[in-house]
């Protein structure tokens, strides 16, 4: 089973919990997710849970790809 299938329900739950906290005026961490949850487009439209998950996933994947590439390059230099 692909790891994204396992992570998705947990991430959606976290998104929903954060949305509730924001709606109730509770503070939320000002991490990537917190910033994305409060962002809106020119029309004032906020991102859906699926859009947020896709953006967070893209950032996580980009970091992993960059890290993997750097590790491969470092290994090549050591050999």
Molecular structure report:
The chain is an all-alpha fold. 73% of the residues lie in helices and 0% in strands. The protein is built from 3 helices and no strands. Helix 1 crosses helix 3. The longest helix is centred in the last third of the chain and has 30 residues, at 49-78. It is globular. The mean pLDDT is 78.
Map the helices and strands.
Layout: H1 3-23, H2 32-38, H3 49-78
Rg, rounded, reads 17 Å
**Beta content:** under 5%
N-C termini distance? 34 Å
Counted beta strands? 0
Query: Main beta sheet, described?
Result: none
What is the approximate shape? Answer: globular
Give start-end ranges of low-pLDDT stretches: none
Following the backbone from N to C, one meets helices and strands in this order, namely HHH
- Which secondary-structure class do the elements indicate? mainly alpha
Residues in helices, as a percent range: over 70%
Query: What is the average of the pLDDT values?
Result: 78
Q: Tell me the number of helical segments per DSSP (H or I, 4 or more residues long).
A: 3
């Amino acid at each position: 089973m692909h790891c994204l299938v396992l992570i998705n329900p947990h991430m959606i739950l976290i998104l929903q919990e954060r949305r509730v906290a924001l709606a109730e005026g509770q503070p939320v961490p000002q991490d990537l997710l917190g910033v994305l949850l409060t962002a809106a487009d020119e029309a004032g439209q906020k991102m859906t849970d699926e859009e947020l998950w896709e953006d967070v996933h893209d950032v996580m994947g980009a970091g992993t790809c960059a890290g993997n590439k750097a590790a491969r390059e470092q290994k090549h230099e050591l050999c």
